[in-house]
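Because discrete structure vocabularies remain unfamiliar, it helps to consider an illustrative case, giving the amino acid sequence and backbone structure tokens:
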Amino acid sequence: MTIHALKVIQYVQNSSIRHLRVNMSECFDEALALALNDLKYTDGKPVAHPLVSRFIKLFWGYRNKDIYNLTWIERQRLDDTLLELREIFSRPLCKKAFHNAMRGNKRNHESLVQYMDKLFECHAKLLIVRLDIHYAESISNDITFDKAVKDRTDYINAVKRKYNHLVSYIWKMECGRKRGIHHHLIFIFNGHKVQSDITLCRQLGEDWKSMSDEPRTYYNCNADKHKYEYWKSYGIGKVTYNDSDKRYVLKDKVISYLTKNDEEMLALTPLGCRVVGKSQLPATKQLGGRRREY
């Protein structure tokens, strides 16, 4: 499912019962027609966005219908289904499910903040590399959730094999209007072993492009230091244990951006799948004892 189902849901939630029907407006009809067409390319299973899951379940039988050429009976049934969807959205259980789904970003943020703190207990100096990987606009709309997951997994495995001083990594799947499904990545290196974060990020980006013949693109966030400093959000590059200011920006800006809500991505994500992930922490025994100062 895509933005079209979310548009229909917004119309349903904001329209009165008296006006909610097919032909309510040209924009609504267009969104509904596109959302029903999208159903043809799904398997009908629930997704991580609870409201979109309700939409899929109720409108699955209309996936082959052309709303511009309905019989009177078909139009009445579709109108009734829209009203049923509105009634479902008003139920406390449905509201709670939506609220819980939107709270996922807070849980992810808290988890990643704790994760970074533990990494700094292992390493007094880390090199934070922030990279966005995506596909060229010519193919971005054709990239499925499963393909994006496989490509990310293959890429991260290749990075782990190539870069010996990689300590950890964090990833976030996102869906944009132009980029389609893409990934925000943070690669975390041992700052005593690796320097030149801009060059390293460029190498990582070129690795992503070279792994396939399809047109791929990337964005080197570390190369835009001045922009992020202007926004007071430069929490990447070299970060030391004792640099409380930069560590705060890393948590409050960088990680917060990675864990922001993305309804479009939730609408595309199969139920039970993740949109944020990270590597495992070093072995517990490495976390104990006196903090290293070098």
Observations:
- The CA atoms of residues 55 and 106 lie 26 Å apart.
